[in-house]
Amino acid sequence: MKPYAESCDQNRDPILSVIKPLFAECKRILEIGSGTGQHAVYFTEKMPHLIWHTSDRAENHAGIKMWLDEANLLNTRLPLALDVSKDAWPKNQYDGIFSANCVHIMAKSEVQAMFAGCASVLLSGGLLVLYGPFNYGGQYSSESNAQFDLWLKERNSLSGIRDFEWLDSLANQGGMRLQGDYEMPVNNRILCWEKV
Ligand SMILES: C[S@@+](CC[C@H](N)C(=O)[O-])C[C@H]1O[C@@H](n2cnc3c(N)ncnc32)[C@H](O)[C@@H]1O
């Protein structure tokens, strides 16, 4: 059965309102951790100038393909096998990378591998765009995020909401500079870095 995440229906329009202007001049996007594939289908319908390359760990590929097959869009690409810390990164270069709700699922070592990989495949001027909850100054931005973090860690002790400052330092190490930090509904943010 086709996988479905209600959260994607809830967050897709607020995300689109931020990424549409950010990706206006982009051509080729890599999505990391495409999950169900719902975001890929919705965003490529709304931004037909983009070629949107989905990716995820192999276990999610069948579901992503179901969404892509049904939508039958010209500008989506079948999922690449990309576990950020285990698989070889694509040889292609991208002018945009998008990832929603992934860095709090990944272990910290995987997040480090993800930022290094992103730095290696982003063109100069390209954008890395992350959506999700983040901590600032070591503090949760809401009680609901604190509860969510507990839930994440009970599920997998290596998961957890990441500090903005740590992510920004990883981006800087990869030659990326913060372009924007956008407030989103229900205590989420969009962080955007530009490759220098
Ligand atoms: C909470 S889901 C988010 C899925 C989708 N982006 C969304 O917003 O609905 C987290 C995603 O991160 C992916 N993920 C976790 N660890 C990963 C890794 N090491 N490399 C690549 N993807 C990973 C999972 O397979 C899953 O698709």
Task: Walk me through the structure.
The protein is of the alpha/beta class. It has a single domain, classed as 3-Layer(aba) Sandwich (Rossmann fold), CATH 3.40.50. Helix content is 38%, strand content 28%. It has 6 helices and 9 strands, in the order αβαβαββαββαβαββ. The protein has helices at 6-22, 38-46, 61-71, 108-121, 143-155, 164-173, and strands at residues 28-31, 51-56, 76-81, 94-100, 122-132, 134-135, 162-163, 176-184, 188-195. It has a 7-stranded mixed β-sheet with strand order 3-2-1-4-5-9-8, sandwiched between helices. It is globular, with a radius of gyration of 16 Å. It binds S-adenosylmethionine (SAM). S-adenosylmethionine binds at residues 5, 7-8, 32-35, 39, 56-57, 60, 82-85, 100-102, 105-106, 110.
Write a compact overview of the structure shown.
The protein is an alpha/beta fold. It has helices at residues 6-22, 38-46, 61-71, 108-121, 143-155, 164-173, and strands at 28-31, 51-56, 76-81, 94-100, 122-132, 134-135, 162-163, 176-184, 188-195. The chain contains six helices and nine strands.
What layout of secondary structure does this protein have?
Blueprint: H1 6-22, E1 28-31, H2 38-46, E2 51-56, H3 61-71, E3 76-81, E4 94-100, H4 108-121, E5 122-132, E6 134-135, H5 143-155, E7 162-163, H6 164-173, E8 176-184, E9 188-195
Parallel strand pairs: 1-2, 1-4, 2-3, 4-5, 6-7
Antiparallel strand pairs: 5-9, 8-9
Helix pairs in contact: 1-2, 4-6
InterPro entries: DUF938, SAM-dependent_MTases_sf
Protein name: Protein containing DUF938
Pfam family, one: DUF938
